[in-house]
Amino acid sequence: MNPVLQNVIHFVITFVFSMLFLMGSASILVYLERKVQAYVQERYGPYHYGPQGILQAVIDPAKLLLKEDVRATQTDNIIFRMAPVIFFAPVITAFVVLPFSPYMTAGALATGIIYYVALSSIDVIGVFMAGWGSNNKYALIGGLRAGAQMISYELPLVLALVGAIMLTSVLAPGCQGANPDLSTCGVGSISFTQIVAAQMRPEAPWLWFVLLQPLGLLIYYICGLAETNRTPFDLPEAESELVAGYLTEYSGLRWAMFFLGEYGNMTIVSAVATAVFLGGWSLPGTAIGFWVGLLGSFWGQVVFNIIAVGAFITKMYVLLLVFLWIRATLPRLRADQLMRFAWLFLIPLTLFNILLTGVLLLLPLDLTPRLAISAVANWLLMFIVIFSFRRLSGLSSIGKIPGWARRTGKVVDATTAGTPPAKGAPELAGGPVRR
Amino acid sequence: MANDVSAPLTTEFAGLRSEEMILNLGPQHPSTHGVLRLVLVLDGETVIQCTPIIGYLHRGMEKIFENRPYMAGPRYIDNADYLSPMLNETCYAGAVEQLMDIEPPRRAQYLRLIVGELERIASHLVAVGTYGLDLGASTPVLWCFRDREQILDMFEAVSGHRFTHNYMRVGGVLYDLPKGWIQTCEKFLDNFEKVSLPELHELLTGNEIFEARTQGVGYIDPQQALAYALTGPVARASGVNFDLRVNRPYGAYREIAVRTQIRQDGDCFGRYRVRMDEMAESVRLCRVALANLPGGSITTRSPIALRPPRGETYYAVESARGEESIYMISDGSEYPYRAKLRGPSFVNLQILPELLRGSKIGDVIAILGSIDIVLGDVDR
Q1: pLDDT tens, B187-246?
Q2: Contact A227, A265 (CB under 8 A)
Q3: Is the distance from CB of B5 to CB of B13 less than 8 angstroms?
Q4: For residue range A249-308, what is the model confidence (pLDDT) as tens digits?
Q5: CA dihedral A208, A214, A216, A219 (to 10 degrees)
Q6: Domain spans of chain B?
Q7: For chain B, N or C: smaller number of CB within 10 Å?
């Protein structure tokens, strides 16, 4: 086949798949969110349309698209209208680099992670514009909160990925063998395809980075929650405080763009975590050679890619279900606690993790012991963090009243302060009856 | 009231001039627990001044009492603190009984205690559940309502109404317990104590985020609690040892001892814990009352048109939110001359502006939720 035509077909297939997957995943997540929450809360959840209410996934977005577009008169028109677009566009664009399978990668950029990080930080502009353009005090506070939050959590999010990138510097395909390719080896790769390839080396296809960098995944996931404004970091749209935050004035299609964009963001965060930490499309036993040998070059590749995409999506949805689970379980932080958590806990922790991993990977040892030592150190660090979370994170000491501030710790007997029952009061309680 | 809020002040910080913002929280807001309106003066996220504006749910309840015969009172007082109607009715009926100098039969008093304690559980469940919702946890409220639903079903069986029960009568109660009610109740109490309450504790009490949001927030010291005349869980969480069921026992509480639940935290977490402990205590009280339930009639014989002799009296019960009481004046006619209702929520709400000064917006909701006001009780 003509290689140009082949490339065009490849591009069309992958692009259409990415787009459809984004929209489909967002609406399925809306349904799943309601169903999972209902399961936790002992309710039925959506039930009427289709078996187990599955058609709700279609009806919800359709309703949003058909709704009247209401705009308050006092809004800043241009900013108000542009905000959802600016929020939504990076979500679609970021989808391009996601490595669903070796074939199903719309744009296998060499700068994958940088590209994703750059796009995901554009979102905050859209949110901030929504908050400002709405000309609503709740929206303004929500937008400001979102700005502070997303910028703060961007840092540990990127730094958490650095640990995995450093691992590729010793595990990338170019570094293996008798004569390593010195041009790339030791540098590491920020291409998603390369990172996934480093996790499925022929000799250890099960060595996902989560085994070597569990702390990285944990921090990345926490920051992902904050990036996508999910519980416990959903302050920008805290419905009990700010009504709907920066979304207060939005309705109909514009609201739907924020709504679907948010779920799209969740999908992307999970997809990146899958690719970087959970081995992407790799599954023990899936090797392209086996299928090609069994079914021939074309069909073997087709079947392999289907399986790979399936594996990727399955891992991704496991992470997404944790998103939903957390939403149903945890309360939300306060604004100052949120900032303190990022700057005083997560960022130092990730920096320390990078230092530790880097030093251990530079030890003058063979590859396997080096990896083992760094993995053990990382696991230990993670358990220390988890089990002394209270003390380290400083969360539980934030609001504590120091001892000197409690003026009295004694029980006060209020009966002496009130009027005692008069003598000769009737059997019934309360005060006397005055005639 | 709205005019009390002073004009925006300006603050200087590092040469930058910033203006304060006035935010109208309510009356239509997801977590003001009804139609409370708070006018907040904000400096960024920090509250500088708070003015609560009430009255959006005023129904002229006290005037309604004056225009209805004594017998109709319990039906109207149901709507005052609409989360604990049984306790309101006990208060009204008790006041009229005291005026008429009659005492309900023991069985009626025990029934009042049982439904009253169940109502306390139901009311605290709403308080704790919505408190979780205020802090952003969506599950506790549904788990709480699941259990509250069972209590409401039991109330429906006993009184015919799920919500505004109209169960208490002057001189007793309206109906006796239906067949099998005691077993249902015991089953509920067992399940609640062994499953639901531990589940709630697991979900909220040890949660780091919940603790971080509630501990040390909205601290009321005991002297302050006394000065503001706070009662109920809010006062007891500050170490004020005051519970009407113990200090001025009425009805069956003269026979069944209550263990007052006190904590010395004085913060939102303490108030939450006092409510949780009181639910466990209410379960115990219900068990004791059911085990010792005396037989006999459930109401004294009293005329349909009640005419208490001239006089005035004050009768108070420990409602789920504090001291709920009525000051009633009778002029000897079929209608009360005056019935002044003291809503515990109204009194407890007074301390809010002082607590909110200097706290963050998130804490506004946390503190308001921990005081647990019911706007029907505030505005009456």
Answers
A1: 999 999 888 898 888 888 878 888 888 887 888 888 888 888 888 899 888 888 888 888
A2: yes
A3: no
A4: 888 888 888 888 888 888 888 988 988 888 877 776 666 666 666 777 777 777 777 888
A5: 130
A6: 2-53, 61-379
A7: N
Q: What is the pLDDT of residue A404?
A: 46
Asked whether residue B39 carries a pLDDT value surpassing 60, the answer given is yes
Per the prediction, chain B carries an average pLDDT of 85
Q: How much is the pLDDT for B19?
A: 73
Estimate to the nearest angstrom the gap between the alpha carbon of A219 and the chain centroid.
10
Long-range CB pairs of B262-266, under 8 A, 24+ apart, other chains included: B262/A411, B262/B236, B262/B237, B263/B236, B263/B237, B263/B239, B264/A409, B264/A410, B264/A411, B264/B238, B264/B239, B265/B215, B265/B237, B265/B238, B266/A401, B266/A406, B266/B219, B266/B220, B266/B221, B266/B222, B266/B225, B266/B237, B266/B238, B266/B239
- Partners of B313 on chain A (C-beta within 8 Å) are 430-434
Closest chain A residue to the Cα of B245, Cα to Cα: A429
- Alpha carbon of A22: minimum distance to chain B alpha carbons (Å): 27
pLDDT recorded at residue A418: 42
Measured between alpha carbons, how far is B155 from B239 in angstroms, rounded to an integer? 33
Optimal mutation site among A39, A340, A344, A412, interface B, most CBs of chain B within 10 A = A412
What is the C-alpha R_g of chain A? 27
Residues of chain B contacting residue A143, judged by C-beta atoms under 8 Å apart: none
User: Residue A35: what residue type?
Assistant: K
Residue of A335, A400, A412 lying closest to B216 (CB–CB): A400
Q: For the domain B61-379, what is the CATH code?
A: 1.10.645.10
| 3 state SS of B310 | coil
Describe the strand order of the beta sheet including B336-342 as a list of residue ranges. Answer: B311-319, B322-330, B336-342
Greater pLDDT, B338 or A414: B338
Instruction: Report whether B241 contacts B292 (CB < 8 A).
Output: no
- Judging contacts by C-beta atoms under 8 Å, the chain B residues touching residue A329 are 137, 139, 203
Whether B124 has a pLDDT exceeding 90, the answer reads: yes
- B332-350 pLDDT per residue, tens: 888 899 889 988 999 998 8
Mutate to test the interface with B, among A234, A330, A388 (most CBs of B within 10 A): A330
Task: Indicate the SS3 state at residue B24.
Answer: strand
Kindly identify which residue of chain B lies nearest to residue A411, measuring between CA atoms.
Answer: B239
